[in-house]
Specification:
Strand content of chain A: under 5%
Oligomer: heterotrimer
Number of helices of chain A: 14
Radius of gyration of chain A: 22 Å
Strand content of chain C: under 5%
CATH class of chain A: Mainly Alpha
Chains: A mainly alpha, B alpha/beta, C mainly alpha
Shape of chain C: globular
CATH topology of chain C: ABC transporter involved in vitamin B12 uptake, BtuC
Number of domains of chain C: 1
CATH class of chain C: Mainly Alpha
Helix content of chain C: over 70%
CATH architecture of chain A: Orthogonal Bundle
Chain lengths: 366, 390, 307
């Protein structure tokens, strides 16, 4: 990585902007928006994980949220009193492992599930893969929803509550902390935690993309048979893509569980998988900056519309004509269509992809 | 790292800040010295449960309009109540965002949420900010089990209702072999489990335990499986969009048994969807029948005239607002910290029941009324009085 | 024995609805190679339109025997227009875009249609008037009623009709040509835009029929009913081999059977460990098993993936 002075100063400006972001957001918009920004960070991590599978390796995954769920339940089970219900003898107070032990564990378990999903689907392509991954996502959700019997493992649809908050150096993040004389509310503290994780995920993604593995994934995406002929072990690399993507998902799931303090299967529905996929495609598959933009946009847009629909109508018609809640999701769907029609390759398409598109069109014209 | 990359990140950061342009006012407009008290409300207003969520919102809105018409005075100032209603999409994550937004808007109390799955994660945020939350319809035992002093409900919980229903099915309806279907939601699971416990304790045998989901409309497969076990009563723990078609399919498959539901089935919509198959079905509803309560009938007439027939929980929302306002009046303050202890010890005559809370914030006593469809209408059978608490 | 027979009947009835909707997915996929995610919503709009038309006609005093077919025709007309519009707005501009772009517009459309329906028809569940005398017939101890027989027969008839259209008519030949190779078809003088539009129109007409059937059978209509049905039908189409008409029919019927037999017998098979709550898990496991051994579905013929 080389930095010229211009990009160095840009980077510094960005760092300061991000550090101040929760304060600025709270001052301008209120604390609710800091929470929305926190969720946007989680979505960015998820979208970057899915980007490995869909954007780099070209494997269409419609069940990605399952890995998020696996990670979330890993921490919910090992960081709450819940297991006391199922195993009162072994764990009278439940299990309370430190978040920092569970985090890598959650990533590993999710990665294992990634391989589990990858193995039977190696021969499948395109839309057949899409439906199997969709099914996989649903299977995980259904198991989580029903494993309250015969032994109460997940507490079924009622979900697991009272999950321990994340602590950094034995400072719990769920209450306001005074650090260097600055009062930092819980949502701010989580913001910095998520920011650190997101930066880490971005760095890993970037390195992966430029590594031998990343190039091999892209080769598989472009032409699996040719990639195999060039000596790439397509089976292992495809499994690795699933596992890596799943690990990102699992880690963000554990963060989610600690942040929310409550998990239930409702949070891991098919619609969530679709949303994350939309973030990746809308932002620009295979391009990290694009994926980040997509994640922020789709996480924030519904909330902007929540706040904006009524004032907008007031401004246009002088009164509220349509029930704001009906209009909100309608506009959201409309925005998806319009953005895609104007930027079919995503808002910030990757350079490789853009080149491909140009040649495609050139071939078309011949 | 290219500067293009950093620039796009910067754009992203700006996008996060941009929405500030349409910020909503959080300052209290105290024109002519009146005090503005904001009350938050949250329920799913989009998605498959939107019809029940809208009903909740209407119930809340009516109570607030009534209070404004009465000209209530708190702390020597005339009060204008303002409703801030938000859509939580029945999604736990959105619920916490909504909760934080309501907190930001400095609400004095919150009526919501509709589901247990949203009420529970949101309750933590209300608790941390010291804001009173009264759920009109969350029934999971877990909701008040977190030890949050700010969480209340004006609805019997699953344990209270399941116990009464199980007892009624076995003792009054003399069911010996019972089949149970739940809709695999937090509500359905909780109610079904408690029902089974109670029915078994009373000597009935659970011959079939089947499941469906809250988006299904074809139950022929599970009902056929139930038919094979020849039960004399079927208990369904779920909501009316499923209960209606289920009753219809029961009839089509010629299953002759008693059909029983919890509060999720006690709606005019159940009768509409089930048609003549609704006849004879049983359902329960916490509280006393509206027309037996002072002001109940009048509430119903006014509500129907203003909005639409009551779907389900509108009266409970109405009560929740009123009990909250009553506590504010009694404490002479709309500050949550001041009226919270008053609310915890209040005794208020609502349209659904006499409302008193126990130390957890659950409804004390918890009278539950059983209804049956007779000639195409829900008719109250009997009210099972105060159930013993354990 | 009666129970097994009853489960098979349940499965076949449910399956024929899946099959009808799956045909719509598969036709579009065969020609364009894209998943029309909004197809489930077209079914919902069809049901809603039929309900509105029916209520209006009955209100005008039309006899049920006239009102029912007339409202079906109106719903079909509405859906055909909608299908045409969907293709023009969301898919045609993206025909040469990256493969996933139309998927996103489809999801966007799906959200738009759902919320539009919510604004027009409201949030509540509507009951669908029962117009066909629903006499139950005893069939070897199992029960089947008139509407169910009509649904099953109509699904088979529509399927047969569609086969005739695709294999015996000029339009069908053009459709097959476009599916095979768009450029070659164009060079041969096929107006591909027209053929694609007609495919969408035909698929949407089938969706309207399916919507009316679902509503008449279960007696309800709701703005959210399309999502799950669309998902199931899509699964059915893949199971049978997407892009293949007979595959859609087979996949639909099979999925219906798998679901009802699964719900009925999983409990006995697993010794009570799992019950009907794992019905969908069972269905997806069968799907995965089929795809592991036949990666392009039961009757799938396409070998290479289209770019």
């Amino acid at each position: 990585m080389k930095f010229n002075s211009k990009s160095k100063s840009l980077l510094a400006a960005l760092a300061i902007a991000l550090l101040l972001l929760p304060f600025v957001t709270e001052a301008l918009l209120g604390r609710g928006w800091v929470r929305i920004v926190d969720f946007a960070m989680l979505y960015i991590m998820l979208a970057l994980g899915l980007n490995i599978v869909v954007g780099l390796a070209g494997l269409l995954d419609l069940g990605y949220i399952a890995f998020f769920a696996v990670g979330a339940y890993c921490y919910a089970l090992t960081g709450s009193p819940h297991l006391a219900l199922a195993f009162p003898m072994a764990f009278p107070d439940g299990v309370h492992l430190s978040f920092w032990i569970v985090l890598p564990l959650a990533a590993l378990v999710a990665g294992g599930f990634g391989v589990l999903l990858g193995a039977p689907t190696l021969r499948l392509r395109g839309d057949y893969l899409a439906i199997v991954t969709l099914g996989f996502g649903e299977i995980i959700r259904i198991f989580l929803n029903n494993l309250n019997a015969p032994i109460n493992l997940t507490n079924g649809p009622q979900g697991i509550g009272r999950i321990d908050p994340v602590s950094v150096a034995s400072v719990p993040l769920n209450i306001t902390q005074n650090i260097f004389g600055i009062a930092l509310p819980s949502v701010h503290l989580y913001f910095y935690l998520f920011l650190a994780c997101t930066v880490l995920v971005i760095l890993v993604s970037q390195r992966l993309e430029r590594s031998r593995i990343g190039r091999a994934w892209m080769a598989i995406r472009e032409d699996e048979i040719a990639a195999g002929a060039m000596g790439i072990n397509t089976r292992n690399l495809k499994l690795l893509a699933f596992a890596m993507g799943a690990m990102f998902g699992g880690a963000s799931g554990a963060l989610f569980a600690g942040f929310q303090g409550f998990v239930s299967p409702e949070s891991f529905s098919l619609m969530e998988s679709i949303m994350v996929l939309c973030m990746v495609v809308l932002g620009g598959m295979g391009n990290i900056a694009g994926v980040i933009l997509g994640g922020v946009l789709l996480a924030v847009l519904p909330e902007v519309l929540r706040h904006g629909v009524v004032p907008l109508q007031q401004a246009l018609f002088g009164k509220t004509v349509v029930d704001p809640e009906s209009l909100r999701m309608l506009l959201f769907g409309g925005a998806l269509i319009v953005m895609m029609l104007y930027r079919p390759a995503g808002l910030l398409p990757s350079r490789v992809r853009r080149r491909e598109l140009d040649t495609d069109e050139a071939a078309e014209k011949v | 790292m290219s500067s293009r990359f950093i620039r796009s990140l910067l754009i992203t950061a700006v996008m996060l800040i941009l929405p500030g342009c349409e910020k909503s006012p959080t300052v209290e407009q105290s024109t002519s010295g009146e005090l503005v008290v904001r009350i938050g409300a949250s329920a799913p207003l989009t998605g498959p449960q939107a019809h029940i969520g809208k009903d909740n919102e209407s119930g809340t809105r009516m109570a607030i309009e009534d209070a404004n018409a009465k000209g209530i005075v708190i702390g020597g100032r005339k009060v204008r109540f303002e409703l801030i209603s938000e859509d939580d999409q029945a999604d736990p994550k959105t619920a916490t965002i909504v909760a934080q937004k309501l907190v930001d808007n400095k609400v004095s109390g919150v009526i919501g949420h509709l589901n247990s799955g949203t009420s529970i994660p949101a309750s933590r945020i209300y608790h941390d900010n010291g804001i009173v939350q009264i759920s009109p319809s969350a029934t999971a035992v877990e909701f008040t089990a977190n030890g949050y002093k700010t969480a209340f409900r004006v609805m019997a919980n699953d344990a209270q209702q399941g116990r009464v229903l199980g007892g009624y099915a076995t003792m009054k309806l003399a069911a010996k072999k019972i089949a149970v279907i739940d809709d695999r939601t937090g509500y359905g699971q909780g109610l079904a489990d408690e029902f089974i416990k109670s029915a078994q304790a009373n000597g009935a045998q659970i011959v079939a335990r089947e499941y469906t989901n809250d988006k299904a409309y074809d139950f022929t497969a599970v009902l056929t499986a139930v038919k094979g076990k020849q039960p004399d009563l079927l208990f369904f723990a779920g909501m009316d969009p499923q209960a209606g078609p289920m009753a219809k399919q029961l009839k089509a498959l010629a299953l002759n048994l008693k059909f029983m539901m919890g509060d999720g089935g006690y709606t005019p919509q159940f009768i509409k969807l089930a048609g003549d198959a609704a006849e004879g079905a049983y359902a329960s509803l916490p509280g006393v029948p509206l027309d037996k309560m002072p002001g109940g009938k009048e509430f119903e007439t006014r509500f129907v005239a203003k909005y639409q027939p009551i779907q389900l929980y509108a009266p409970y929302c109405y009560d929740a607002v009123n009990v909250m306002i009553a506590a504010m009046q009694k404490a002479d303050s709309a500050e949550p910290a001041k009226y919270l202890p008053v609310l915890a010890g209040i005794s208020h005559d609502g349209v659904t029941a006499k409302i008193q809370f126990d130390e957890k914030g659950d409804l004390k006593g918890g009278a539950i009324t059983l209804y049956q469809v007779q000639q195409g209408k829900w008719q109250p059978l009997e009210t099972l009085g105060a159930v013993k608490q354990d | 024995m009666e129970i097994l027979l009853q489960q098979i009947i349940n499965g076949l009835v449910q399956g024929s609805v899946y099959a009808l909707v799956a045909l719509g997915y598969t036709m579009v996929y065969g020609i364009l190679g894209l998943i029309n995610f909004a197809h489930g919503e077209v079914v919902m709009i069809g049901a809603m339109l039929a309900l509105s038309a029916l209520t209006a006609l009955l209100g005008l005093g039309a006899p049920p025997a006239l009102a029912l077919p007339l409202s079906l025709v109106l719903a079909m007309a509405g859906c055909m227009a909608l299908g045409y519009g969907i293709e023009r707005i969301a898919y045609r501009p993206l025909r040469h875009a990256p493969r996933l772009a139309p998927l996103i517009t489809a999801i966007g459309l799906s959200i738009v249609l759902q919320n539009l329906a919510m604004m027009i028809w409201g949030r509540e569940y509507h009951s669908f008037p029962q117009l066909i005398a629903n006499t139950p017939h005893n069939f070897g101890g199992a029960i089947i009623n008139d509407i169910q027989i009509i649904i099953f027969v109509m699904a088979l008839a529509i399927m047969a009709g569609l086969m005739v259209v695709v294999h015996r008519t000029r339009l069908g030949r053009a459709m097959r040509a476009v599916a095979e190779n768009q450029h070659a078809a164009q060079l041969m003088g096929v107006d591909i835009n027209r053929v694609i539009s007609l495919t969408f129109i035909l698929g949407s007409a089938l969706a309207a029929v399916a919507g009316l059937m679902v509503s008449a059978n279960y007696g309800l209509a709701h703005y959210y009913m399309g999502f799950l049905l669309g998902l199931k039908a899509f699964t059915a189409a893949v199971l049978g081999g997407i892009g293949n008409l007979r595959g859609a029919m087979l996949g639909g019927l099979l999925l219906g059977l798998i679901e009802s037999l699964g719900a009925g017998y999983i409990g006995d098979l697993t010794g009570g460990f799992m019950g009907s709550n794992y019905q969908d898990v069972f269905a997806f496991f069968v799907l995965i098993a089929v795809l592991v051994f036949r990666p392009s579905g039961l009757l799938g013929e396409r070998i290479a993936e289209r770019a």
